[in-house]
User: What shape does this take?
Amino acid sequence: MFRQIKVHEDDVDWQRILWRNSPEDAIRKYRLVTVTYGTACAPFLSTRTLRQLALDEVKDYPLASKATLCNFYVDDLLGGAGSREEAIQLVTEMQAMMKKGGFHLRKWISNEPSIFREVSSTPKRRSLFTWMTGIARFWD
Assistant: This one.
């Protein structure tokens, strides 16, 4: 997720790397243009970016915006819906809203597999039952 978040042009000089393979080589300069995993600010920047996207897109994607603001933990969304139709709408909105922000959601799981037949572009179509069965086998 971090590599999908661009750093403002004014700030990329703070993420400079000077590199050479041996003392005889000339020093090469690199500037990292995305949020770097492992930096102290990376978790905040990723969370803040998702939050800002949700706030910016609340008019066009109300379900996705609410889910992003209330049900994200770092880069994982755990949510649900009251009906099959609402779940389909949520998945559709989440995909569209995240695409506007440059994010690609994957690893969807549902206890209602027919939802994924309605949303054809949803990757990793697995049912919750299959996933839970796998966990049960792991612990047996």
